[in-house]
Amino acid sequence: QVQLVESGGGLVQPGGSLRLSCAASGNAFNTYTMGWYRQAPGKQRELVATITRGDSTNYADSVKGRFTISKDNAKHTVYLQMNSLKPEDTAVYYCNSRNFVGLDYWGQGTQVTVSS
Length: 116
Description:
Helices cover about 0% and strands about 55% of the residues. The chain has strands at about 1-5, 10, 20-25, 30-40, 45-50, 55-60, 65-70, 75-80, 90-100, 105, 110-115. Strand 9 (about 90-100) and strand 10 (about 105) form a beta hairpin.
């Protein structure tokens, strides 16, 4: 089992920035990728960004150049730096951990609202 706890969401004006954090605990030894997904009201959950054990990253086209995913292995924490936020970035953001056999773990989600 892997437990994931997100933090850092909130309300921000368009053009502003937020940094999300996701702390992992439990049996994270077999983690292959960690990432962030989001779900807006009435929409399906979608990938935002992922980072592999070897630090390879992948981003949704809609966030490329604005969001940066990173991780601190010593702290078992993954981050999502979000800059130049837009109203369409408003969603619940979920942290994800996937192990080498494809088993997914999810955090409880953190709300990000971009509004003036």
